[in-house]
Amino acid sequence: MSRLSSPIVIGGLGGSGTRIFAEVMQTLGVHIGVDLNPQLDNLWFTLLFKRRRAFRGMLRRRLSASAFDRCRLQLLTKAMTQSPTNPSTIEKICGWLAYRDVRSHGHDSEQRGVGPWADERWRSMQVGSEPRSGAWGWKEPNSHIYLPLLLRQFPNLRYVHVLRHGLDMAFSSNVMQMKLWGPAFGIDEPASKSLQPKSAFEFWLRANRRVMALGEKFPDQIILVRFEDLCRKPEQQIRALASFASVEVAPAQLQQLLGRIVCPDPLHRYPGRDLTLFEDAGSKLALFGYSV
């Protein structure tokens, strides 16, 4: 893949606030796809990469990427930048295998009507996107799982990783990533629902530390941003994101975005909760600039 094809990608744990960051990029003119859900997730990425079989393979390989992973990424790139996609024979096989897997098993345990869902994704992927010469990319929270692959395949990748307070995430009802990828990080599904916040917090810690370590190796390509900072200093954060992505922000775009950023009130969900579940939470939170 050429350097010109390198995308801008947004990821993070589910429920961390990735949608508003996707809105920022989309408003600034970054093409993030044509097959999106209400959360602005790129459903082609979901079809190709959010897969239980991929999870088992990654677990065996200790989160390394296979030739199959790279092939699917090439297919995604074509779908995002060409119309029609015109995939090679091997890319068709890679895409079809992913489609068959999702159609048979679903991309998560709660997906209903997965057959029609996968059919629609597969059809739209064959159509692809209008050819584009400008900035492009996608937002899909699970992208962080494949970050080493993305860094190898895209020399000029720009990856935005969204953080949210670890204790807020611990008490979030969005635990699908933990269920899907947790065992690869040494975290099994909790024995009881009462222990779920503890497991969710540990997954938050391990997954984000992994991205932070990669960010230290690739500081020009990976940025960690906090959802709370966007809420408190939206203009500053919007300008920082635009600079990182090498896109311009016009005054009208800035005003449009400032009017669309709506943050929860109260901002945090953990006050009043039982925090005795968490060991040494303060020092773990401090790694990312948070406190109790």
Overall description:
With 292 residues, the chain is of the alpha/beta class. It has 2 domains: 1-31 and 137-292, Rossmann fold (3-Layer(aba) Sandwich), CATH 3.40.50.300; 35-131, no CATH class. It contains 14 helices and 4 strands. The chain has helices at 18-27, 43-49, 52-60, 67-81, 89-105, 114-127, 147-153, 166-170, 176-181, 196-217, 227-232, 234-245, 251-260, 281-286; strands spanning 8-12, 137-139, 158-163, 222-226. A 4-stranded parallel sheet has the order 2-1-3-4, with helices on both faces. Helix 2 (43-49) runs antiparallel to helix 4. The longest helix is centred in the last third of the chain and has 22 residues, at 196-217. It is globular and about 55 Å long.
Task: Please summarize what this structure is.
The chain is an alpha/beta fold. 50% of the residues lie in helices and 7% in strands.
